[in-house]
Write a structure and sequence with these properties.
Layout: H1 6-15, H2 23-50, H3 58-67, E1 84-88, E2 94-98, H4 105-110, H5 142-150, H6 160-164, H7 182-195, H8 201-213, H9 221-234, H10 239-254, H11 264-276, H12 290-307, H13 314-327, H14 333-356, H15 360-372, H16 379-393, E3 403-404, E4 407-408, H17 413-423, H18 425-434, H19 437-445
Antiparallel strand pairs: 1-2, 3-4
Helix pairs in contact: 1-2, 2-3, 7-8, 8-10, 9-10, 9-11, 10-12, 11-12, 12-14, 13-14, 14-16, 15-16, 15-17, 16-18, 17-18
Length: 446
Amino acid sequence: MSVWNPDNIKDVAESLGIASLNDDVLSGLSMDIECRIREVLEEALKFVRHSKRTNLTTQDISQALKVLNVEPLYGYESTRPLRFGEASIGPGQPLFYVEDEEVDFEKLINAPLPKVPREISFTAHWLAVEGVQPSILQNPAAADSRNQDLVPKGPSANPNLAAISGADNVTVKPLVKHVLSKELQLYFTNVCSAILDENNEEYRVAALSSIRTDPGLHQLVPYFVQFIAEKVTHSLKNLFILTQTMQLTSALLDNKSLHVDPYIASIVPPVLTCLVGRRLGSSPDPLSHLPLRNIAAALLGSICKKYGKSSHTLKPRLARTCLKHFLDPTKPLGANYGGIIGLQAVGGTEVVRALILPNVKEYESLLREPWLDETSPKHAEADAVLTALVAALQALEDDSLGLINGHAIVPDEEQRRRLEEKVGSLVADRVFLINRPKFVRALLEA
């Protein structure tokens, strides 16, 4: 039984010239019409729900008809609610219609015309004439542009430069919005001040221990990396600050809860600076910078060991940089020292065999003069470089078989001559001074 009245279908059929319809046909058409209307209403109600509304509009019906691939109804779009009037054409046959608003033509004709909208137009002005910016409304004022020049530019710019220049109210907008809680901001400030506190070792140890073990420092990693880069860049004459920044880097790398992999490219430059920098510190002691270079070399080896697999070009680039500072005659002996221990830390035995050993004799010509002159201020550094060179070559000893039939091979004068031809007299004398036959054999066979 259909809700739709079959008499309506019969009236429409008679208007189309169909005189008589079977009752079964009328019943089937009524049920089909009811199904179609229900389908349209269900689609229209979906638009109502998604629009967060409670009333159904004619636009919802039109959208539903479009979704169902049915030609929409025309003439029912309206921004105002429709008012329906009722007219009776017979007993029990009401007719509903839309009440049209009556318009008085006299009022319509005498009404003033609306304002004509402005046409779209373009204007041009000079931004600069022969490098000089004209003072017009479209261009920024000279004072604004002068203040803008004081703002530090670039991701690595120092925002304190603006304050130094007199623009205290200049604020630098960060490239990425990064919100830190007040607790993390206070933690970062206290840790940085404690690490650089030269008079309180207990605070320094506690701060580094916290960074090494605390699992909730993910958001502070980029800030610590930037802090390390700034301190290394601006404190090359302060060995204490440089050493503390390397200790901070080591603590970050030792924290297993931190994901430092994306920041390795930013961590490596400060470490390389402390390893192969030309002048580190201002102490009169020529060997005062060597502990810092040793720490940096250990850090470089740790970085290659942990992150060398994720970045296949990391080890070759670091080895190339260290080799360049090792063999460059224009570099000071401290940079040569850093290049030697850096090469050993980066690649171990293979790098020593492939890059250090073939160049030892050539490098000895640079080392001989300052090492032989004991009154030279470079003598102590030259001796340290020679010691580092021999220590790096000792890595080859582990790969050599120094025993034959259970007896060590005692080096003789023939082996000494061969060794001098291979590594030079200075290194050969130091090797024979150690008095380890296995070491001599390893160098001759490498």
